[in-house]
Amino acid sequence: MALKAAQQLLQLLPPATPETSGTSHNESGEDPAYGDLGVAVVDHHGIRTRALLARKGFHAGDTILTLPPNHVLRASGTDREFCRSDACRLGLQLAEARAKGGGDPFWQKAIEAYPSLKELEALGVPLVASEKALALLAQAPEFQPMAAKIRQSRGEMLAAVGAYNRAKVHPHLTFADALWGRAVVETSNFGNCGWQLAPVADWVNHSAANVQVSCDTDGNVKVIAEKDIPSGGELTASYNKLGPVGNFSRYGIIQERQDGGAAPLSSGSCMRLQLASMDNEPVLRAARKFLGLHCAAPGPPPSPNAAAPAPAPAPKAAAPEPRAAPAPREPTADLQWGTIQQIQPMTQIPGISNLLYGPRPYVPVAATAWNTVMPVMATLPPLPWIPTSPPEAPRRSRRGREFLS
């Protein structure tokens, strides 16, 4: 991670004065320009990244570092013919400076200290991720603006490097050179000073702020302590208020959700990404850590041998109300209806029983009842609902004469 170059760059910082640092020398007698600061690799949510450390204690209000204008790179107007945005121009300037080489020793070492394209990819920076990884992350609606912005930035750099090379007045740059410059600019820029590169000052990581990075009207960039910082403590600043999704999309940062803040991903987005394969690229592995921090763990799949859950008991039906006993029927002249109904079932008379007992398909009667039933049936009129066949109409011949078939 260019750690050696970063340590060497600290030795090239301009001398500090009591007015800028709050002290002229530290306890060991070293110049506070580089003796008060150190650099190391630390772990942030499972991602190893470079960090700027305090090698001595600082009090709130102390100026920890001041960079003069010649140690700050800002977008110039010379590349406006190639780029439409300051981020593109600044990235192209940085790539050109690396291609030319030589020049100010401070900037030579500063360029060496920035992560390479391969290191940026290993850090999980989305801007240098593959198109396949972007398409997978874009399955979540919350990451679709990130994918669109990255494609737009890559397209801008591709067009810019093409126009840059056609001018034939600069060292030849590849698209990888231009993309590296843009990625360094995007991941190193924060605060309210506009698009710029301020080596060492932009090594401050994003977290709960204990320092503030600011710029004055003279073009100086300053790192000022906002609270007391112990010796060995990491210098951190609050980059912005983009939230977890915004900072992951731009910097590859895995940021915790603020207390009371809304969940950065919906449950549907969490499920889509949790079911996808997230082990192929560093940006996907970083996204998996992001999901582990902001999404609930998916439940285990049901075992095929597990017993099916017992169905919920059906609600008990209300007990039916007791039916009232039918009113006794009046007797006819020679037949007691109730007497026949009380006879034990011995035989059934289909059809006939309907005439005797009403709408009951089969009513049992005893054999001894035949002598009573049959005389009554003989006196009943024919059934009116039994259809009779209509007489067949005579057919006519083709000549109109009637004939019998």
TrEMBL record:
<feature type="region of interest" description="Disordered">
    <location>
        <begin position="301"/>
        <end position="331"/>
    </location>
</feature>
<dbReference type="InterPro" id="IPR050600">
    <property type="entry name" value="SETD3_SETD6_MTase"/>
</dbReference>
<feature type="region of interest" description="Disordered">
    <location>
        <begin position="12"/>
        <end position="33"/>
    </location>
</feature>
<feature type="compositionally biased region" description="Pro residues">
    <location>
        <begin position="301"/>
        <end position="314"/>
    </location>
</feature>
<dbReference type="InterPro" id="IPR046341">
    <property type="entry name" value="SET_dom_sf"/>
</dbReference>
<protein>
    <recommendedName>
        <fullName>SET domain-containing protein</fullName>
    </recommendedName>
</protein>
<dbReference type="Pfam" id="PF00856">
    <property type="entry name" value="SET"/>
</dbReference>
<dbReference type="InterPro" id="IPR001214">
    <property type="entry name" value="SET_dom"/>
</dbReference>
<dbReference type="GO" id="GO:0016279">
    <property type="term" value="F:protein-lysine N-methyltransferase activity"/>
</dbReference>
<feature type="region of interest" description="Disordered">
    <location>
        <begin position="386"/>
        <end position="405"/>
    </location>
</feature>
<feature type="domain" description="SET">
    <location>
        <begin position="50"/>
        <end position="240"/>
    </location>
</feature>
